[in-house]
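Predict the 3D structure for this chain.
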Amino acid sequence: MSSDAATLEGVIGFLTSSAAVAEKVSIRRAYAPALENAGEVRLGDDCAAVQDGTGFLLLAAEGMLPGFVADDPWFAGYSAVMVNISDVSAMGGRALAIVNVLWTPGMDRAQMIWEGMNAAARAYGVPIVGGHTTVSAGSRAYLGAAVMGRAERLITSFDAMPGDDLLMAVDLRGSYRGGKPFWNASTEAPPERLRGDLEVLPALAASGACKAGKDISNGGIVGTLAMLLECSGVGAELWLDRLPKPEGVEITRWLISFPSFGFLLATAPGRTEEVMVAFAERGIVCVPVGRITRSRLLVLTQGEMREVFLEGEDGAEGGWRPRARSP
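Done. Predicted structure below.
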């Protein structure tokens, strides 16, 4: 077996056993009950986009895993703000305000979480304007947050087209947060740089250079790509050997990592260079890592080797399933 074939086999085996990837691959089933009451808002985007005059109000929410809040309360608070702001930026918008939902068993834990939330709010220049905070009896802390933003033009999960280039934009100026699959390029960065970096997305949306994309979330690169393809009703090739990644990091770890600044974007080939230059001017790596296809297949390639990892499921529930592999 060639080294490329061995790498590809190892990656597919690893991804098939990843709970984080599995959750994203089947996520449409999780939000299917909401579809009947969504009105004109398309579900599956990073934010709900509500038409408002000539633009859009953006609304998003994130819940932090209780184990994460227990193990790293300051960073859980920071992340609750940061990931919501990233969702707004992923859709070509600018965040306006954050609200929190917090239950804690004591003031000590609440204080650490609030310190993290306030640090992120200061760094990104987005105020926390209210929410729900309760200090009560119990053994665990629970944390969520929601954001409101605005966009004049959208980057959506629904507009990737066959023939588009698939780009990955990621800030590699960071490090892992302990043993967690989180690539942290935020907490030590200057606030003015963080804010300026996020401004790239609204600018690309306004120019029409980029119409489709998502921020890379807990499902990592492959889980996020599966969600993008599901919404757009398309397939893709993902070129594993062209993925930008930190030096010395194993490809399997990187594929399920959640970067503080990381986006998958689909662009018409004639606009690809423009998008790459916009990120490069901010010191952010942005390169083609695949292409959008007509098939309902997610194909992974390594060198000359290629294998179908996921295929689209038929029926109203949609979603993806791993392709059965030969023994």
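The chain has eleven helices and 16 strands.
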